[in-house]
Design a protein that fits this description.
2 copies of one chain form a homodimer. Chain A is an alpha/beta fold and 288 residues long. Chain A has 11 helices and 9 strands. In chain A, 48% of the residues lie in helices and 14% in strands.
Chain lengths: 288, 288
């Protein structure tokens, strides 16, 4: 594997940033990996774990001379840090991110970065029930999908180098425009999160004594960080509301089938869902 | 462990019935375990696996002389088989089941069983992504909850013996009246199933390329058997519709918070759900 970048700076060395650092260093995909953190203890830990070659608390200092900057902070901080580091970036630098929504970030970043610096929005669809640098692992991105969201204004060469990086750490790379990304992820990620939270909200206190593995798995994502999820849903309002309305329409149809005891309509609704789910996860069938 | 019953007949030796047979035989909770199946190959396999001592395809023959009969078939068959075996049951026999809804079954069984035979409704909240006798395991019920649903007419002694059996195979036993059971399970099991199916239904074809572990787990139960789930939802219509309406009201509030960009309202909704979920499953936190 040859170097794709000379100097990569990762701002935010938590689960995602830390795992990326490990994978980049293992693959020798950059000559130097610099980490920017907001606490010295995280930087020390990242150095100790071999996540980064150098670390600093000073973002402007950390991104100087970088030819790739990865904004891997919580989604709500990405554009603010982008603005902050913009003056320190060298010409030709590529900036990318790992945010779960893309339209707002791409629009804002494109407007704040200086001429000669290009933004390539990215969203690695990977996660873990754990958080923070200690949960970082080299193979976090292996066999996952990473979406890149270039616009007409993004130089193809910049997109290509970011794509090569994600492919080199094991991800399948897909291209979507930012709005398309947000529309799709509203259905595949943001809606499931909201549904999980509302399922939990529907439970009474006594219900908790009568839960099985079904509702446990169905609601797992409702344990996600509240602030991050506020940022995600509020930065993708329109697409999220459309997804909710699509869902509600389907729920009405199911409700009607049960209400009228229309077994064939109900069976058709459930069978269509089962067929589709079994197609997406052939090994993950379930009864309960 | 001493014998609780002389002769236990399990009608339906699949995952649940087979696991119960294994656990009863391991604990020597009955002198003889008889299995009733509808295919000889299942009976042969159950004998070979040590699930039962004797097996037959003839339900009336199988339940003769039993002092406990466990109806462990698919939920839609329970009352029909109950009617079929009723004339063959000896006086003093206790009949129980493992159905996921209880009001209809308890009502029907109470009316079809002869005098001197008592029905104790049961619902072991245990399952697996697998089905059938080959998936049976001795410890399936360990640390799970089994709900018994006696009515005012059920003799306490019959309830007590069924309770002892479930406790002896490792389950925590809770008592609910049948309607209360169905109301609670509508929220903890039937609603999550419907939500999982509707989340899958909301996806477009292209969305399947952008799915992570969140939606995978959120929708796992949508792979459940369509006929069984039609039986469950249609045998619990009223409570299910109430659960759906409770859910829809909460979803409306979340929708409104996002629509009006009311971050504090949204954060409160998500935080309440997270707190409750973390309380129910302290080890199962999640971000994505």
């Amino acid at each position: 594997m040859s170097e794709i970048f000379e100097r990569v700076t990762i701002v935010g060395v938590g689960l995602i940033g830390g795992s990326l650092g490990l994978a980049v260093r293992r693959g020798t995909l950059a000559r130097t990996v610099v980490g920017v953190g907001h606490r010295q203890v995280s930087i020390d830990r990242a150095l100790e774990m071999g996540v980064i070659d150098e670390g600093t608390l000073d973002a402007a200092e950390g991104v100087k001379d970088a030819d790739l900057v990865v904004l891997a902070t919580a989604i709500g901080l990405i554009t603010a840090i982008g603005e902050q580091i913009a003056p320190a970036l060298k010409s030709g630098c590529i900036v990318t991110d790992v945010g779960s929504t893309k339209s707002q970030i791409v629009r804002r970043m494109t407007s704040v970065l200086p001429a000669g610096v290009h933004f390539v929005g990215a969203h690695p669809i990977a996660g873990s029930e754990k958080r923070g640098i200690d949960a970082a692992e080299t193979d976090l991105f292996r066999d996952t999908t990473c979406v890149l969201t270039p616009t007409d204004a993004t130089p193809p060469d910049a997109v290509d180098r970011v794509r090569k990086l994600w492919e080199a750490v094991g991800a399948r790379v897909s291209m979507l425009d930012p709005e398309e990304h947000d529309t799709i992820l509203a259905r595949t990620s943001h809606l499931p999160h909201a549904m999980a939270a509302m399922l939990i909200a529907t439970l009474t206190d006594v219900d908790g004594r009568f839960v099985g593995t079904g509702i446990r798995d169905t609601t797992r994502v409702a344990s996600g960080d509240v602030n991050i999820w506020c940022d995600i849903l509020l930065s993708n309002r329109e697409a999220f509301l459309q997804a909710v309305d699509g869902f509600s329409g389907r729920l009405d149809a199911l409700r009607r089938a049960v209400d009228t005891a229309d077994r064939s309509a109900l069976a058709e609704i459930l069978a269509r869902a089962k067929t589709r789910r079994d197609g997406l996860w052939p090994d993950g069938s379930a009864v309960e």
